[in-house]
Amino acid sequence: MEYHDHQRNLKQLARTPFIAKLAPSFQRRLVQLFDQGQISEPYQGSSRLGFYYQWLVRQAIIASNDYDLIAEEVIIQGDKQTLGAIDFLVRDRVTSELEHWEVALKFYLQSGSQWLGPNVKDALERKYERMLSHQLRLTSTAEYQRSWGETYGLPTQHRAIIQGYLFASGEALSLAEWVNPEAIKQDWYFIQEISDQWRRIEKPDWISPPSFSDALTIDYPLQRPIQCINQQGLRGFIVPGGWPDIFLNQ
User: Fold this and answer.
1) Is 172 exposed, middle or buried (0-12, 13-18, 19+ CB in 10 A)?
2) What does the alpha-carbon distance between residue 33 and residue 37 come to, in Å, rounded to a whole number?
3) Same domain, residue pair 137 and 163
4) Do 190 and 67 belong together in one domain?
5) Residue 98's domain spans which residues?
6) What's the CA gap between 172 and 162, in Å, rounded?
7) What span, in angstroms and rounded, lies between the C-alpha atoms of 214 and 204?
8) What pLDDT digit, counting tens, does each position of 159-190 carry?
9) What's the number of domains the chain is made of?
10) Rounded distance, CA 70 to CA 105, Å?
């Protein structure tokens, strides 16, 4: 799986919703960060979309006039195990504050009152809770302070940045207070419900989908959820019959 047109993908992040609400002033700065960002190096990382997204955020920070990249992927080691890794430590040039950013790009589908990842192994509430209760607390641990406190300092701002889309099922919605309703702009369908008005988007194109004419035809029988685009240029997810139950036991 190969990613391409990195500059287009970075620009698209300026128009990608933030699933978890942010302070309006900080969100405006992030949008500007992505819109004005520039790619400065080739991508040589993992094929996983999350790693690619993190690299795009890195490119935007490096090109920014508002932030300095202090450190990334800082490993926090406990006595017997690794506690985790900090995505980014950045210095706000306006306030001079050190900030800890955890970032993620996610696509969730509504299932009753839950928002599940396509493979149902991930859920929005679990992801957000882990960001707040574990990942963003890494810089407050004694292990961080002992290993990295003098080198980088202690962050005074902690940011949970989750971008992406929520795909509704048509059921009644009950959103947590921290969920941004503007991220809910898409729908998902069972494979038996659709016609040839949908075409498949390969995962490298999930950030910036191609036009309908450049997308791929859907392969039958459908084995897994796929992101698609229709003739109107709208995204959707198409899932096999029996989703999500058929994936819960895999």
Assistant:
1) exposed
2) 6
3) yes
4) no
5) 6-168
6) 23
7) 14
8) 999 999 999 998 888 899 999 999 998 899 99
9) 2
10) 22
